[in-house]
Amino acid sequence: MEQAQAIRDLWRVFRRRFAILAGVALLGAAISMFVAYLLPPVYESSAKILVESQQIPTELARSTVTASAAERLQLIEQRLMTRDNLFNMIEELGLFSARDDLTLSEKIGLVRDATKIKAIAVSGKRQRRNDTSISAFTISVSFNDPGDAARIANEFVTTVLDQNLRARTERASETLGFFEQEEDRLSGALATLESEITIYKRDNEAALPDSLEFRRSELSRLAQTDQELDRRILELEEERGTLEATLEMSGGTAAPDAALSAEEREIRRLEALLTQKRALFSENHREVRTLKAQIAALEATLPTTTNEDGTTTAQSIQEMGMRRQIDLLGTQITLLKDQKAAIDERRTALELSIQQTPNIEMTINGLYRRHAEIQEQLSTIVRKRVEAETGERLEMNQQAERFEVIENPVVAEKPVSPNRRKILMLGSGVSMALAVALAFLIEIMNPAIRSAAQMERMLDLRPVATIPYIQTAGERRRRRFWLTTVVLLLVAGLPALLFAIDQYYLPLELLGVRIVERTGLDEIIRIIEARL
């Protein structure tokens, strides 16, 4: 019962405020319609570009461009939307040539707002721009002129393809150039280090670790030789002392060289030479045996005569032989001491070189470690340089990942916006809501009791009698005014609506034909005409 009473109260409110409701609703609908058909049409032209993967398997040839298609698309979009690029495109295509009221910044802003680049996946679901798994993307341009939209889209497509190819080629070339520079640098460093190692080895040749065992064995051998020389010198000195004592006991005096014959002088010379050879060679050496034979032959040729002092030539020869032997022993001792001094000097040098070997070995090992590190780096760089050359050839031949246009932008036949029907429906709905809100606001601001049921519900008092509402002359005039206004709005708004449709949307004749075709009335008309 209460619900039915509330519905009746609402109906009375609607009847009382019908003029306001109708006026506001019609005015809002007219304004919405006017705005909807005054908005300029927007045409869209779009292109779809496929991100084609590398044709050659990556196991056989790998591209050096590692950036994903989404990253490269973001970079390309940033380059496309630069001020200089858009300015050049506006000048080249002659955009906004009739809009002198727009500044250059406004023109560039309009082109930026009109362009959209969206990434899509293989399944057709839209992906986020930071998704690296995109396989295609679209470039859409929305513009008031369909021809300009198609030309702008075509220009963007051409620029995207060129910039993608140039960016990938430049990236591959930069990668190859980097590895070539690194290869040259490491090759130079390796050559310099090898030269340094060679010079260091040459300067420290006597103390290299490779000859350490040889020097140690040589040092041991020299020690033994030194002991042998000491023993030999001692023996020779004892022998010389014995000969000197024997000669002194015989009272012999040395004969001067002038008193000697030619054979005797030759014997002395050969004996001196024999002493030198004995210091160098053994007794069985060929040269030692030859000298001994020559001395024996010369001694055999000497005659036996008596000298003035009463001694025979044989005795003189014997004394001369003893003196020559003493001289020879002295010469041998001197030669052996010289050899001993040379051996001592060599031993000192070997001991010093053996002491220096550990430090030299550490330095050489450090140089060789550095050489191995550089060699390993060079091998890695050479391998990567070969891969970079392969990647560059892939990019040059366009056999790596590339962009391929699968849908070219075309001139749009129909505008994509504004959606006049949606604007009209939305405006009408908002107008109705405003009208209802205004009516209820007026009711709330004028809280009068208008019926016996309302009085009983609000005051809990039942009236004895009710007097019907009597309109005054002013109320009747206002009511006639609102009715007249609504009628005038209907009469004037309908022609204005039809005029706006004819001028800004579609001629009324074509609109009627379309309505007939879409509603199926043309089939009904043809059937009726056929029956008639």
Count up the helices.
Answer: 15
What's the helix-strand series? HHEHHHEEHHHHHEHHHHH
Low-confidence stretches: 123-132, 252-256, 305-314
**Amount of helix:** over 70%
- Mean pLDDT across all amino acids: 76
Question: Overall 3D geometry?
Answer: rod-shaped
Structural class: mainly alpha
The largest β sheet comes out as: 4 strands, antiparallel
Give the distance, in angstroms, between the N- and C-terminal Cα atoms. 57 Å
- Assembly level: single chain
Strand order of the largest sheet: 2-3-1-4
The count of β-strands is 4
Q: How much beta, percentage-wise?
A: 5-15%
Radius of gyration: 62 Å
Walk me through the topology:
Blueprint: H1 2-16, H2 18-38, E1 43-52, H3 69-80, H4 83-93, H5 104-114, E2 115-120, E3 136-143, H6 146-203, H7 212-250, H8 262-280, H9 286-301, H10 313-396, E4 402-407, H11 420-445, H12 452-459, H13 473-505, H14 508-519, H15 521-531
Antiparallel strand pairs: 1-3, 1-4, 2-3
Describe this structure in words.
The protein is mainly alpha-helical and 532 residues long. The chain contains 15 helices and 4 strands. A 4-stranded antiparallel β-sheet has the order 2-3-1-4. The chain is rod-shaped.
